[in-house]
Amino acid sequence: MVEKRIQPLARDAMAYVLAGGRGSRLKELTDRRAKPAVYFGGKARIIDFALSNALNSGIRRIGVATQYKAHSLIRHLQRGWNFLRPERNESFDILPASQRVSETQWYEGTADAVYQNIDIIEPYGPEYMVILAGDHVYKMDYEWMLQQHVDSGADVTVGCLEVPRMEAVGFGVMHVNDKDQIIDFVEKPADPPGIPGNPGFALASMGIYVFHTKFLIDCLRRDAADPNSSRDFGKDIIPDIVKNGKAIAHRFTQSCVRSDFEREAYWRDVGTVDAYWQANIDLTAVVPELDIYDKSWPIWTYAEITPPAKFVHDDEDRRGSAVSSVVAGDCIISGATLSNSLLFTGVRANSYSKLEGAVVLPSVKVGRRAQLKNVVIDHGVTIPEGLVVGEDPELDGKRFRRTENGICLITQTMIDKLDI
C-alpha cells in the first residue's frame, strides 16, 4: 500500500452519490421511500454509510442525485446533512431529477444523473470526482483509492470486491492483468474470469468510480451525444474506457476501514428482505462483523433529540428485558421480552409480548401478548394484541410478505387487512 501524502487528495475531490434507485427487491419497504432512504442499524439510513465514508475520508464537497420516491430521502438529507458550510469551502447539493436539461427528460441512467448536473459541478472546480452508489453498507477510506488513481495514471479507477468466482455471476466483473489493469468488463457473466494468481476469486464492481473531473465530463458529453447509449456507467462509460483508455481496479481490502474488532472487510448489498433482515440482526451479535461503535469512523446521520430507552416491570411473566439486542432511544419496553432483536427509535413493546429476531422500524407499537419471530416491521405499524407471527408458515404467507428464508415483512396495510 502506498504511503499517504501530506496533502490529502480528498480535499480536491467531490463525492457524487447516486441515490435514485427504486430498490424493488425490498418489496413494501420501498413502496414509499427510495432504497438509500431505508432505515438501517437502529438510527441511520442506508445512504449514511456512503456519505459518512466521504466525510470521514476528508471530502467536503458532496452531491446526491435523487429520483424515485425521493421525499423521505430528501427530508433526511436536509435534517441530517445540513452542517456542511460554503464559507468553509464545503458544499452539500441535493440534486433531484428536475428536467433541467429537457422538459421531458428525467435521469435516464447513472451517467445521465451526473451529466445533467455538470453545470453545478464545474463551478466548484473539483480536480477529482468520486462516484458512489448510495445503497450499500460498508466503511471505506476513499483517500487510498484516490491515491491509487493518481499514482497509476488511470483514466478511471473502479472499486472492486474480491468474491468467490461463481458468486460473482450477479455482478459486473473486472477481468484484470497482473497489474490490476482492467482488460475486460463483463456484466453478470455465466463464467466469471478469475483473478491472476487467485483464480478461485473474481473482482466484482462495487459501483464506485474515481475520475479526473475534466476527463469524466468529456466522457459524459460524448456519451450524451451517442443515440445508442443507455447512459449508464456500468454499461457504457466504463466498458468504453476499458476498451480505449486505462482502467484500474482498486481492491476494497486496500481501503476498507476496520476497527480492532472487525476481522473481515465488511460490505453488504442489503437489497433483499432476507439480506436486510440478516445485516440488521448481525449487529446484535456480541462481536458483530460491522462495528458501528467505532468512534474513529463514525456513521453520521440525523441525530434526533430523544429520551433514553426505558425498561419497566419486573414480575415473573411480565418483565421488561432485552438479551443480545440493540435498542434505540425513546423505546419503552413495558413488560415485553426481546431477544436477538433490533429496535429503532420510538418503539413501544407492551406487556407479555415477545420479540425474537425482530427488526422493528421507528414508531412501531407492539400490542400486549403479541408473539413475533423473524420479522421486519415497517415504520409506524401498530401490531394488534395477541398477534402471532413466525409459528405457522402457511398462515404467515397468506397474511404478510414471507420470504423463502421465512422472514416476514409486516406493513400497516397488511395489518389493516387482517380479520382478527
Automatic annotation (TrEMBL):
Q: Where does alpha-D-glucose 1-phosphate bind?
A: 107, 172, 187-188, 205
Q: In which pathway does it act?
A: Glycan biosynthesis; glycogen biosynthesis
Q: Which GO terms describe its molecular function?
A: glucose-1-phosphate adenylyltransferase activity
Glucose-1-phosphate adenylyltransferase/Bifunctional protein GlmU-like C-terminal hexapeptide domain residues? 307-410
Q: What class of enzyme is it?
A: transferase
Catalysed reaction, written as an equation: alpha-D-glucose 1-phosphate + ATP + H(+) = ADP-alpha-D-glucose + diphosphate
| InterPro entries, sorted | ADP-Glc_PPase, ADP_Glu_pyroP_CS, GlgC_bac, GlmU/GlgC-like_hexapep, NTP_transferase_dom, Nucleotide-diphossugar_trans, Trimer_LpxA-like_sf
Please list the residue ranges annotated as the Nucleotidyl transferase domain. 16-284
Keywords assigned: ATP-binding, Carbohydrate metabolism, Glycogen biosynthesis, Glycogen metabolism, Nucleotide-binding, Nucleotidyltransferase, Transferase
Annotated site residues (Could play a key role in the communication between the regulatory and the substrate sites) in this chain: 67, 106
Give the EC number(s) listed in the UniProt record: 2.7.7.27
Supply the SUPFAM superfamilies for this chain: Nucleotide-diphospho-sugar transferases, Trimeric LpxA-like enzymes
| Function, in words | Involved in the biosynthesis of ADP-glucose, a building block required for the elongation reactions to produce glycogen. Catalyzes the reaction between ATP and alpha-D-glucose 1-phosphate (G1P) to produce pyrophosphate and ADP-Glc.
**Quaternary state and partners of this protein?**
Homotetramer.
Record-linked HAMAP family: GlgC
Recorded family membership: Belongs to the bacterial/plant glucose-1-phosphate adenylyltransferase family.
Per its record, how is this protein called by name? Glucose-1-phosphate adenylyltransferase
Q: What is the species of this protein?
A: Rhizobium mayense
Print the organism lineage: Bacteria, Pseudomonadati, Pseudomonadota, Alphaproteobacteria, Hyphomicrobiales
